[in-house]
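User: Structure please.
Assistant: Input sequence and predicted structure:
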Amino acid sequence: MATRYAALLRGINVGGGRKVPMAELRALMEGLGHGEVRTHLQSGQAVFASGRGDEESLADELSTAIGLHFGFTVDVIVRDHAYLKAVVEACPYPAGELEPKQLHVTYFSAPVTPDRFAGIDPDAYRPEEFSLGDRALYLHAPNGLGRSKLAEHLSRPRLTRGIVATSRNWNTVTKLVELTGG
């Protein structure tokens, strides 16, 4: 039986470079043998079904295929429906009371521990706040991500060294749960 997954591509179709047309991405994924391939928006989300591999091997396979096809490297995180749903259910903030632009999830390719973020003084960024989950970081930015000083600080390379990190707004987070739900 096939498992339904979401593939999160980091840093594509923003600015002028690293263009990945969604129709080509779907065809590439189908060529890898995945079924029920759909893309969401132009910013690097695809859902698919696969009866082989695990999240890490599927991410590596897709990243390699994208590199060969498009000529540039793209970091990919693959997560199954159960994980995506658990991330939504574990949200420490009142998602139903917030505008989607105020809540974001950063997905990590591996577990992260609080000591990675120990140098951040939470009081310096209030009313913004963050919380760690299972291979995820929740960011509550009341004034939106574009104005968030905390988001800027959290994206510094030293905090994400050795792992892949990619963020999605709450609308996309919940839509991926829906799309992978089958």
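Strands lie at 3-9, 35-40, 45-50, 76-80, 103-108, 129-133, 136-140, 165-169.
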